[in-house]
Automatic annotation (TrEMBL):
Keywords: Membrane, Transmembrane, Transmembrane helix
Stated name of the protein: Yip1 family protein
Record bears the keyword Transmembrane: yes
Listed transmembrane segments: 73-94, 106-131, 137-155, 167-189
A Pfam family per the record: Yip1
Residues covered by the Yip1 domain: 14-182
Signal peptide: none
InterPro entries reported for this sequence: Yip1_dom (IPR006977)
């Protein structure tokens, strides 16, 4: 399958209408692993650029000076790390529950999910300039879309038939991960003075 602009547009549209079908199509493309890693690097770079552009627009260029975000390259590297960890969790936790998915496909689906969310962020940024209240609605819808697409992609990747169980497993995994990260950050930062 050629990844031209019309094909990407059709895949984006179909992702909203039939996410499991799109997941099947993406996995059936048989992209070599180097192409998947390149897609990861590209989407991380685009995410970093969009995040810095958004911050510059919202703060009048002062956000970068205040250190709200790391520079574009460190932010892109951080984004790569987050996506790889997410793909690893999708792969390993799904296999632990009896799924059949491969890491290469988990990586591809996570990258595609990030691309879909990136397109939504662009729409949100444009709407923030034209009609700010609409941007808030798009942000809320984006959160719901993230969980819906992740649920469908994980279910298709691992061959799980029941979406409700997959969704509950994802929510539980996020909850556990948040606790682990909070404990990790607490151990690094330490207790505040005087406690």
């Amino acid at each position: 399958m050629e990844l031209s602009l019309p094909v990407l547009t059709a895949l984006l549209r179909d992702t909203l209408a039939d996410p499991r079908g799109v997941a099947r199509r993406l996995m059936a493309m048989g992209l070599p692993m180097p192409a998947r890693w390149m897609a990861l690097a590209l989407i991380a770079a685009l995410s970093s650029l969009l995040a810095h552009l958004t911050l510059a627009m919202l703060t009048g260029g002062q956000g970068a000076a205040q250190g709200i975000l790391p520079g574009p390259v460190p932010f892109a590297m951080l984004q790569c790390g987050v996506l790889v960890v997410t793909a690893g969790l999708v792969h390993h936790l799904g296999r632990w529950r009896g799924g059949q998915g491969r890491f290469a496909d988990a990586l591809l689906l996570v990258v595609w999910l990030q691309f879909v969310l990136l397109c939504l962020q662009v729409l949100q940024l444009v709407s923030a300039l034209i009609l700010p209240p609409l941007a808030n609605i798009i942000g809320i819808l984006g959160m719901g879309l993230f969980f819906w697409l992740l649920t469908c992609f994980v279910a298709e990747l691992h061959g799980f038939p029941v979406l409700g169980r997959v969704f509950l497993a994802i929510v539980l995994a996020f909850f556990v991960l948040a606790i682990v990260l909070a404990m990790f950050l607490g151990a690094i930062i330490g207790a505040p003075p005087g406690v």
